[in-house]
């Protein structure tokens, strides 16, 4: 079983990298991709915990914005973690999350919802990439909502009056950087309409031209019709079809391995990186 999209407490998940690896082994996964938001800080710990038949496909989920202001997440897998320009892009994207969080908090306060950046920092694991899920956790702690899911449904979704975009690379720029660093690029949950405005079918050709390798088709936030439409786009553009859990530990309902990638699709995706960077025990 191959799961190509997961998170740890190095970003907005709740498991440490070691705990994630241990759970993947217990679940019988054969390939696990570690894709924390805009960071590679969990790579070393995951590698130290690796054992048995599990292989690691190290990567990151890069926050992007189209020129039209649509939020897009790009999975970069199997890239060179020492690539300086890639690390600079990730750092710049992380830095942009701080003023964004402060603005969201300001808007929430103006709406009569009490929360502070100190509240957010108190629930965020040390060193983790700051994100809206940590604001959600602070809202839970303050008794405003009962869960992360409720926070996003009621207050933090992309169409909310409290939503704030942040500085981020375009999807094309992120793809170009991933490929320059020797990796492969897979667009994550591109038709997840419940999260807000999404791409159209016509938007995928420019991404293919930019170097996109695959589309995450099978994801819990895609309906059956959305999965079918994305699979058609992938076949038309000769892109790899992936599936993944987008696992966040207890931060989301998603279960590890609940969607997965076919072995043949994974082998093709891996072959499109400039080097074989899968980590094995």
Automatic annotation (TrEMBL):
CDD domains: PHP_HisPPase_AMP
SMART domains assigned: POLIIIAc
InterPro entries per record: PHP_dom, PHP_domain, Pol/His_phosphatase_N, Pol/histidinol_Pase-like
Molecular function GO terms recorded: 5'-3' DNA exonuclease activity; 5'-3' RNA exonuclease activity
Domain of life: Bacteria
Domain Polymerase/histidinol phosphatase N-terminal: 2-66
Protein name from the UniProt record: 3',5'-nucleoside bisphosphate phosphatase
Highest classification ranks of the organism: Bacteria, Bacillati, Actinomycetota, Actinomycetes, Candidatus Nanopelagicales
């Amino acid at each position: 079983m191959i799961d190509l999209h997961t998170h740890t407490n190095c970003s907005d998940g709740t498991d440490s990298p070691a705990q994630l690896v241990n759970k993947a082994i217990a679940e019988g996964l054969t390939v696990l991709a570690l894709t924390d938001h805009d960071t590679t800080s969990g790579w070393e710990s995951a590698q130290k915990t690796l054992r048995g038949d599990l292989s690691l496909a190290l990567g990151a989920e890069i926050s992007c914005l189209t020129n039209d202001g649509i939020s897009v997440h790009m999975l970069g897998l199997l890239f060179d973690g020492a690539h300086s320009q890639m690390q600079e892009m990730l750092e710049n994207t992380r830095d942009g999350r701080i003023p964004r969080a402060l603005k969201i908090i300001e808007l929430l306060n103006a709406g009569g919802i009490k929360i502070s950046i100190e509240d957010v920092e108190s629930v965020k694991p040390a060193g983790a990439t700051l994100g809206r899920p940590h604001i959600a956790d602070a809202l839970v702690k303050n008794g405003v909502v009962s869960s992360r899911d409720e926070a996003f449904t009621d207050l933090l979704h992309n169409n909310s009056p409290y939503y704030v975009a942040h500085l981020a690379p375009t999807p094309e720029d992120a793809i170009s950087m991933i490929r320059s660093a020797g990796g492969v690029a897979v667009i994550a949950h591109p038709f997840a309409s419940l999260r807000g405005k999404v791409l159209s079918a016509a938007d995928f050709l420019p991404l293919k031209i930019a170097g996109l390798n695959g589309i995450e088709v099978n994801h819990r936030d895609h309906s059956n019709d959305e999965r079918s439409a994305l699979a058609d786009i992938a076949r038309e553009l000769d892109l790899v079809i992936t599936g993944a859990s987008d696992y966040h530990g207890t931060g989301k309902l998603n279960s590890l391995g609940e969607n997965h990638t076919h072995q043949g699709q994974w082998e093709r995706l891996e072959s499109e990186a400039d080097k074989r960077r899968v980590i094995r025990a």
